[in-house]
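Q: Joint fold for the lines below.
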Amino acid sequence: MSSVLRYEALILTVPELTADEASRLESQFEQTLTQHKANPISFERWGKYHLAYPVRNNDYGVYFLSRFEVTNKDGLQTLLNDLHTLFAVKNTELVMRHVICRLDANASLSYNRPDSLEEAPARDVDTFLKENKMTGIGGRGDRFRSGRDGRRRDDDQYEEAAIMEEVDQDQEEA
Amino acid sequence: MARKAKLKVSTRLLRKKARRSSFSTGKQCRFCSSDAQEATLDYKNGSMLRGFITERCKILPSRISGNCARHQRALATEIKKARIMALLPFTSSHTL
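A: Joint structure:
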């Protein structure tokens, strides 16, 4: 049985997190680990996500996943307490939620996660309308929109209405 | 000579008997099938966990999902962790 314990911490931060604040959070995290003789394995930025429910009135959030291993089991509880203090007290304005979990000794470090908003391909308006079978301004839906009387106009009625509007404009100009 | 009274068997019982004697296999725990499937049982894998909650966002019972007791317990724990981290909703009607 290996004496190394692996842990991971998933951190949810506010969506307005700047690069400086992210690097400061990472350096503070690594500093806490080195103080307790733990080895950082990775610190990944997942990206910006739409949250399942609003947290602190934020619909979006940025996730960070960090992993570390602990060899010194004597100071383990102190390390975990310090990490909770770092996330929940010292950086309470930046970190909205965090969770620290122990990984299985023989488990692989690969994992599945949903695509973030930054990774998702950017969609323009035309693609969105086509996917949802919608039409934009001047399209079929706009042309066949209901009139003032609530009835739908067909092609002929639409053309007649357009001609009548032109005639009215000409008369006004004259 | 007294005739034997024939007991009337209800249709529901007949259907139940037929269902039990049929050759259809029961539900299988998908996480028991392979180690690769078991490795996907993780709180970070929100898209997979979404398949085990109802439209009201309640945890699906094992009699419907077919999970074994061990994996149902693990699944419930992972769903609860994912809810805390806002990867899964607690309810379908979250408001600000």
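Q: Anything notable?
A: Chain B is about 45% helix and 0% strand. The radius of gyration of chain B is 21 Å.
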